[in-house]
Design a protein that fits this description.
Blueprint (H helix, E strand, L loop, with lengths): L1 H44 L7 H21 L2 E2 L1 H8 L3 H9 L5 E3 L2 E5 H12 L1
Antiparallel strand pairs: 1-3, 2-3
Length: about 130
């Protein structure tokens, strides 16, 4: 009977050790994969490995939000800014101009008022 108890305890210990090793291995694999993913993304996006990707993404996000705020703060937009503001291509903008979207030309430069754009889009959708 003592031999059976010892055998049972020994089996349980082996199982616990096996489970612990599996858990440690899983965590190491996860950590390894995360590092490889960071490295791969860093190379694909042109970042060096010593930079923290999370900080870089936050910085890029802040820059993008800043650019959006610039667009919303300006009343008069050039052609590219107008396309970005509406979320359309240059060809689509040409179609809107053909449909009556008004802009002002200053030499070869064309500017569009956000007020006019919003008004025009409301009337087109109505």
């Amino acid at each position: 009977m003592e031999h059976t108890i010892e055998k049972s305890i020994e089996e349980k210990m082996e199982n616990l050790i096996q489970q612990s090793l599996e858990t440690i291995l899983e965590k190491n694999i996860e950590s390894f994969l995360e590092k490889k993913l960071d490295s791969y993304l860093g190379k694909k996006l042109g970042f060096t490995l010593d930079k923290n990707l999370e900080q870089i993404f936050e910085k890029k996000l802040d820059e993008t939000i800043g650019q959006q705020n610039e667009h919303t703060a300006k009343e008069w937009l050039n052609v590219q800014e107008t396309c970005d503001y509406i979320g359309i291509s240059y060809k689509s903008l040409q179609k809107l101009i053909d449909q009556g979207l008004k802009g002002n030309s200053i030499g070869r430069s064309k500017r569009f008022s956000k007020t006019e754009i919003n008004h025009f889009l409301k009337n087109v959708q109505a």
